[in-house]
Amino acid sequence: MKPVQVVAGVVYNAAGEILLTSRPAGKAYAGYWEFAGGKVEAGESLFDALKREFEEELGITITRARPWLQKIHAYEHATVHLHFFRIAADAWYGTVSPREGQQLAWQRAGAYAVSPMLPANAALLNALAIPATFSGNPQHGFYSTDGAYRIAPPSLFHSGHDALLLDAHAPQPATVQPRAVWRSVGNLAEFKQAQDADALLWRVENDSAAQTLLHTLQQGVSLPVAAYARADVCARHAPAWRDAGLHALIENRESVTV
């Protein structure tokens, strides 16, 4: 039986918070918190379905949305193919109104105060806490602009880091228990072999590799992907990558400073 196609939106407000809604009474998993959305109807594009669901459920109009992640999840009642979109604060308008008796909550990514969460959304909630920009390099690790999120290779990793960075094929050291594992990949084969990670660092060496990354994002990814590339490659390809679902961008400055 084919999975049910479902769209869901991660809506941001001007404060950078994301919108979660509770499933109304009478639906499966009633009372569980989730991202708003619903089934794609016959003949609808994913974006059209997203717009319709948000107008029906919450009374707001979405003007644009960027694809993010895709997940396939098997519930007791159905298997669903979830298409997640991110919707910036300036990409929707209207007053959020619960039209189906659901509860609403604006939450800070990584600091959720509502529960229980819908099972299919657990990994997504963690992924949303990953910043969109970093500095650093694979040898010494990466850190977010505010220093609040840090990724380190095994030789430098300690409990204060948020994530461990491993090569695509490297086993996780038995003595290390990170909160998250990132894997570094440089091509499609490594990408496919690194799906056990929580997030991926894609090293982009040239324009050909940039096109491979773009095509992969356009096909849909289930893990947040950060691109690591030189400034000139970023300038040429970052807009298309972001429109296709890239989570984060890291400029490779190793040729300038170490």
CATH topological fold name of the largest domain: Nucleoside Triphosphate Pyrophosphohydrolase
Give the C-alpha Rg: 19 Å
> Could you say which structural class the secondary elements and strand pairing correspond to?
alpha/beta
Query: Strand order within the widest sheet?
Result: 10-11-12-13-14-15-16-17
Instruction: Give the oligomeric state.
Output: single chain
Question: How much helix is in the residues?
Answer: 10-25%
| CATH structural architecture of the largest domain | Alpha-Beta Complex
- Global geometry: globular
Q: How many E-type strands?
A: 17
Instruction: Specify the number of helices.
Output: 5
Strand content: 25-35%
Please indicate the count of domains. 2
Give the SSE string. EEEEHEEEEEHEEEEEHEHEHE
Detailed description of the structure:
With 258 residues, the protein is of the alpha/beta class. It folds into 2 domains: 4-122, Nucleoside Triphosphate Pyrophosphohydrolase (Alpha-Beta Complex), CATH 3.90.79; 133-251, TIM Barrel, CATH 3.20.20. It is 20% helix and 31% strand. The strands form 4 sheets. It has an 8-stranded mixed beta barrel with strand order 10-11-12-13-14-15-16-17. It has a 4-stranded mixed sheet with strand order 4-1-7-6. β15, α4 (207-219) and β16 (225-229) form a beta-alpha-beta unit. α4 packs parallel to α5. The longest helix is centred in the last third of the chain and has 14 residues, at 231-244. The protein starts with a strand and ends in a 7-residue tail after the last strand. The mean pLDDT is 93. One of its GO terms (biological process) is DNA repair.
